[in-house]
């Protein structure tokens, strides 16, 4: 049997004799269950599956949530690893960087008389004071805490949404319009003293969830540094190495994520 679909993959024609399976919006199917065959125009054909039209929205929403949460997770990971800006120097926070900073911070606390050596991205290794190492470590922890907390609550918020459009429109950095979640998240965010006011656009495609190619063709665009470069305006807390004080200053870092 050949079935013809409309743009939303509703079955609009069933051809049992002849027909071209390669024609636009046509699919060849076999072994169609009798209950579906007797009511075939009440179905969509998505991902090589027959789905009742009234059940399709639930499928769309589930797929959109999966894709959106994956994007949020990858964005959080990328932004954390990109690191922090301190004065004119940038410090990445990959897993290895975090481990190195943790060891140095422990050394600075336990044995402050031992020389401490580290380097910013692209810079030469030099000696740091225990206070400088602890500042970098503390700012890194604050940055990580902010973004892991935001992702945790953003994920919960997306899971709570019940329309396809609201899921698709949510972006990393968007406000969480749930009073209960916001009330729980805000005290943690405030303790970090990090202010991140940037929206990182979702580069993924959602149209084919509702309008897939015959069968299904998923598009997933992984988040990379290119997706966050040149899009970031943020306020961060940074260390003044020369005076040894932590101060607030509003910054616009063209071309990098903090």
Task: Report what the structure shows.
The protein has a three-stranded antiparallel beta sheet, with no helix packed on it. Strands 10-11-12 form a three-stranded antiparallel beta sheet. A two-stranded antiparallel sheet has the order 4-5. The protein is elongated, with a radius of gyration of 26 Å. The protein is an alpha+beta fold and 258 residues long. Helix 2 packs antiparallel against helix 4 and helix 3 packs across helix 4. It folds into two domains: 46 residues, no CATH class; 196 residues, no CATH class.
Concise overview:
This protein is of the alpha+beta class and 258 residues long. It is 42% helix and 19% strand. It has a 3-stranded antiparallel beta sheet with strand order 2-1-3, with no helix packed on it. Strands 10-11-12 form a 3-stranded antiparallel beta sheet.
